[in-house]
């Protein structure tokens, strides 16, 4: 009998990405530090390891919001370079034109899937990621 994967309440598995991660879009705009705190209750702000995941997440967000909006992802410049909050390797980036800029937090454009440095005190929606569990 095959095990099925279960997500924390409010989170969803995304078809094709893999069964080990669950995602939850939070539409209530907040700052990067506050988004990080909210996501830490069950996971972290999302990390994006490759183009396939980047565009799958863009599709997921497009199914929720019907207009182009930027939302927080879990990439931040910690002084020594860009790093994912969950410690995942930083092997993939999808910077928008003239990016990265001078700000230290990163948002993703839901229409283009491009990433932009954004002032951390800006209030934006955000995408949380959590581990799924076998049941």
TrEMBL record:
<feature type="domain" description="C-type lectin">
    <location>
        <begin position="18"/>
        <end position="129"/>
    </location>
</feature>
<dbReference type="InterPro" id="IPR050111">
    <property type="entry name" value="C-type_lectin/snaclec_domain"/>
</dbReference>
<dbReference type="InterPro" id="IPR001304">
    <property type="entry name" value="C-type_lectin-like"/>
</dbReference>
<dbReference type="InterPro" id="IPR016186">
    <property type="entry name" value="C-type_lectin-like/link_sf"/>
</dbReference>
<dbReference type="Pfam" id="PF00059">
    <property type="entry name" value="Lectin_C"/>
</dbReference>
<protein>
    <submittedName>
        <fullName>C-type lectin domain-containing protein</fullName>
    </submittedName>
</protein>
<dbReference type="InterPro" id="IPR016187">
    <property type="entry name" value="CTDL_fold"/>
</dbReference>
